[in-house]
Amino acid sequence: MFDILVNLFPYAMAFTMPILVTALGGLCSERSGIVNIGLEGLMVVGSFSAAVFISRFYPILGGNALWFGLLVAMAAGAVFSLLHAFACINLRANHVISGIAINMIAAAMTVFFARTMTGSGNILLRNGLARFSVPVLAEIPLAGPLLFRQSYGTTWLILVVLVLVWFVLYYTRFGMRLWAAGEHPHALDAAGVSVYRIQYSGVLLSGMFAGLGGATILVTYSGEFNGSVSGMGFLALAALIFGKWKPLGVLGSTLFFGFAMTIANASQAEPALQAIPEIILKVFPYVVTLLALILFSRTTQAPRALGEPFDKGKR
Amino acid sequence: MKRFGMGSFRVMAAVALLAAAVALVGCGGSGSDEGEGALRVGMVTDAGTIDDRSFNQGTWEGIVRATDEFNLTRRYLMPSGTTEADYIREITNLRDAGFPLIITPGFKFETAVYQMQARYPEVNFVLIDGVPNNGVFGDGRSEKVAPNTVSIFFAEHEAGFLAAVASAVEIGEGAFGFIGGMEIPPVQRFNWGFQQGIAYANEHLGTSISLNPRDVLYQGSFDNVAAGQQIAAQMFDRGIDAIFCAAGGVGVGAINEAKARAADGAWIIGVDSDQYEQGVYADGKSVILTSAMKGVDVAAYDMIAAQLEGTFPGGETLMFDAASNGVGIPEVNPNLSERTEEKVAQVLARIQSGEIVVSAQQGDLIR
C-alpha cells in the first residue's frame, strides 16, 4: 500500500496545486468581505491567456516562455477580477450574481477568441513544464520519495505563495486590515483605513492567484487549453469553506480533495485499488465534504461581513 | 385608428429588425470555394468546427480532395447548435441552394437524415458512422437506409490490428497498454483489434510484446484530461513502452505525459486521424509512434466519385475496412523504420486477401 502511495504522490501533488493556489486567492477575496464564486472563470482566463502567450512566444523564448506565461496569466486574472471588484465594491452589486457573470463571460469569451485564433477552440502547447527530482533532498528516507521526487517547479512556487499568504494574513498590518475588512469594515473605516482599497487588493489577489492556478493546470498536466478547467474553480471554493477560510485549513482540504480524486482516477490502473468499487472512490471526496459541512456548519467561521456591500454612510 | 399609426409602425420595424438579427445569428457560419463545376457537394458539420482534428476535418479534407480533382463546387454549413432541428435547417438550406449530394459526419445526424431522406428523395445523402433511424429505442424503432442514402461504418478492429502490428514490430520487445474512452462499440473494436494484432505479431513476426490485463482499461469519459495524464503516468511508471489511446480528451492527457517522458522512450499510439503533429515535443520529434486511422476522408472522396460516375450506392450500408483502404495507419510514419513499414504492408496485404481475419467480437480477449 505504501508503494502505491509513493507512486501516486507526485501526480496527486500536481493535481492539488492549482486548486490550492486558487483557494488561497478565494481566501484573500473572502477575508476582505467579497464573495468570489468567479474563481472558475478567472482560472479559465488565466489558462487561456497563458496558452495564447506560450504558444506565440515559445519559438522565441524557449522554456522561459512557460514562466512568463504564468506571469501573463496572473496579470490577466487580476485585470479580469477588476470587473468583479468594480461591480461589488463601487456599484455594491450582489457578489454572487457578479461572480456568476464572471464565470459566464470568461467561458464564452475565451472560447470565442480561441476559435478565431485556431479554428478549433483548442490551443495546444508543444511542451509543458518538466518534472524534476530535487537533488539531495530526494534521498531522505520516507519524505524524500514522497515530496521531492518528480515535482514541478510550480509546486514549489505555489507552496511559497501559501507561506506568504499565511505570513501576510497573520503577521502584517495589511493582513490584519484584510481580516478586519471582512469582519467589521466600519471599525476599519473608523480607524481611518480605506475599506475600498483593502477590498480591491483582496479581489485583485484572488484574480492573480486564480489565473496562476488555471495556468498551472495548463503547463503541468493538461498541456492544452480547451475552454474549461473542469470545475477546479468550484472545487477550490468548496475547499475554501471546508478549510474554514484559513490558509492551513485550505492546504489540508485541497490536499484531501487532490488525493481523493487522484486515487479515484488512478484506481482503474492500479489492481490493488480495484477491490474497492470505483463509484465509491469517485464519490468519496464529495460525500465527506457534505458530511463535514453538515457537522461543522454550527461552528462555521466565515468572515462576519462576508457578502455585505460596504456602505460608508451606514453605521 | 390614428392612435396606432406611428406606434405600430415602430413596433413592426423593431420586430422586423429583431427577426433579421435572429436569422443572421441562426446562420452560424459557412465556408465555400465556389467554382464553375458540374456537381455541387455540400456538408453539414457536426459539433465542433471544420478543423476539429476529427470527423469534420476528415470529411472536409476528403471533399476538398475530390472537388479539386474533379473540378466541382463545395460548401459546408455549420449549424448554430447540435439538435435535430439545427441539422435539418442546414440540410434544407443546402438542398434549396441546389446541392444534390449532402454529406453528414457523425451518428448525431441519424434522426435528421432519417427525416430528410424521405422529404427530399432527389438529394443523395451520405451518413458517416451511423444508420438513419427515428430515434426511438425498443419496439417503435425504425431504421431505414433509403435508396438515396448511403450509411457508412468503419472496421475499427482492423485499424487497431495494423497499429498494433506496426508498434510491436518497431518496439520488438516490451509491454503495451490500452486506454479507452467510454466503453462503446467503436472504442471496443479498436481495443479488440489491437489485442489481436499484438498476439499475431508475437506469434508470426518474432516480437515479444506483453499486454497485462490490468493495463487494458476504459476511463469512462472522453474529456477527463487529468485522469488521462495520471493513468498514463502510472502505466509508464510500470515500464510500459507504448499506450494505445482511443479516448479523445483523455488521450490528450496521456500524450502530454508521454511528452514529459519522451527521453525515456514513452510512446503513444494515436487514434482516428494521424495524431503525429499533436505529439511533437522537439524539432521534428513526436511521441506518436503511429495512429490507428479511420479513413473518413476516403469515405467522403469515394462517395463523391461514385456520384460522378452514376454509381452512387444508394440504399446500402457500407463497411470501410482495410480491403478498401478505409482504415489503416498513416502513409508516412517518421517513427517507424523501413523494415517495419514493409512488414505492415505484408500484413495489410494478407488482411486484404482474407488470409488474416480480424474479429470484431470480444471472444476471449481482455475486456
Sheet with the most strands, sense and barrel status of chain A: 2 strands, antiparallel
The CATH class of the largest domain in chain B, by name, is Alpha Beta
Radius of gyration of chain B: 24 Å
CATH architecture of chain A: Orthogonal Bundle
Mean pLDDT over the full residue set of chain A: 91
CATH topology of chain A: ABC transporter involved in vitamin B12 uptake, BtuC
The count of strands of chain B amounts to: 16
Query: Between the first and last Cα atoms of chain A, what is the distance in angstroms?
Result: 58 Å
Shape of chain B: globular
Structure explained in plain terms:
The complex is a heterodimer of chains A (315) and B (367). Chain A has one domain: ABC transporter involved in vitamin B12 uptake, BtuC (Orthogonal Bundle). Chain A contains twelve helices and two strands; from the N terminus they run H-H-H-H-E-H-H-H-H-H-E-H-H-H. Chain A has a two-stranded antiparallel ribbon. The longest helix of chain A has 30 residues. Chain B folds into two domains: 153 residues, 3-Layer(aba) Sandwich (Rossmann fold); 156 residues, Response regulator (Rossmann fold). Helices cover 41% and strands 20% of the residues of chain B. Chain B is built from ten helices and 16 strands. In chain B, the strands form three sheets. In chain B, strands 1-3-2-4-5-6-15 form a seven-stranded mixed beta sheet, sandwiched between helices. In chain B, strands 7, 8, 9, 10, 11, 14 and 16 form a seven-stranded mixed beta sheet that branches. A two-stranded antiparallel sheet of chain B has the order 12-13. Chain B is globular. Chain B starts with a helix and ends in a 14-residue tail after the last helix. At the A-B interface, helix 1 and helix 11 of A face helix 7, helix 8 and strand 12 of B.
